[in-house]
């Protein structure tokens, strides 16, 4: 009987601890705020996963462009920009304007969309 109670207690504590978790935190990423959640949806909407592997995005497992796991921990964006929030925003707004040789197209993201995508990508540490 004591063993059954102990197992029950372990499961109850685990359920309590994970009940407040959001998808990102269960996958080893920081919790997403509303901006990052919109960014995740924007990434899916624009089909970024057709070129990149992006954790947390269903079907984003392509290898045309670089994989984006740990993008927030990298020193450079696309090998040409220091990895800052402003530079990532600039890159997302118009990659060919930053590097004319990039294969990444200008998706014509709005300022809000670029900010949201940057917020999501910065959850990928």
What does this structure look like?
It is built from six helices and two strands. By secondary structure, the protein is mainly α. It folds into two domains: 1-26; 32-121, Immunoglobulin-like. The longest helix has 18 residues, at 2-19. The N and C termini lie far apart (44 Å).
Which terms summarize this structure?
125 residues; mainly alpha; Immunoglobulin-like; two-stranded antiparallel ribbon; 6 helices
Sheet with most strands: 2 strands, antiparallel
Helix content: 40-55%
- Give the number of helices: 6
Strands, total number? 2
Order of helices and strands: HHHEEHHH
Shape: globular
Name of the CATH class of the largest domain: Mainly Beta
Uncertain parts: 3-29
The CATH topology annotation of the largest domain reads as Immunoglobulin-like
Strand content: under 5%
Radius of gyration: 18 Å
CATH second-level architecture of the largest domain: Sandwich
* Count of the separate structural domains: 2
Report mean pLDDT, rounded to a whole number: 83
N→C terminal distance: 44 Å
Lateral strand order in the biggest sheet: 1-2
CATH homologous superfamily (4th level) name of the largest domain: Cupredoxins -  blue copper proteins
Classification by helices and strands: mainly alpha
